[in-house]
Amino acid sequence: MNCEDLWNIFRKNDITFFTGVPDSTFKSWMSFLNDMHGEGLTNIIACNECEAIAAAAGFHLASGKLGVAYMQNAGEGKIVNPITSLADPEVYSIPLLLLIGWRGEPGKSDEPQHKKMGRVTLPILETLEIPYRILPEDIDEAASVIAEMKKTALDNHAPAAIIIKKGTMEKYEARKECKTSYEMSREDAIKAIIDCLDGSEAIVSTTGKASRELFEYRVAKGDTPRDFYTVGSMGCCASIALGIALQKPDKKVFVFDGDGAVIMQMGALATTGHYKPKNFYHIVFDNQSYDSTGGQPTISDTINFEQVAVACGYVSAKTVETKEQLMSALDLMKVAEGPSMLIIKVNKGARKDLGRPTTTPIENKEAFMAFLEKD
Ligand SMILES: Cc1ncc(C[n+]2csc(CCOP(=O)(O)OP(=O)(O)O)c2C)c(N)n1
Question: How far does the centroid of ligand 1 lie from the alpha carbon of residue 259, in Å?
Answer without folding.
Answer: 9
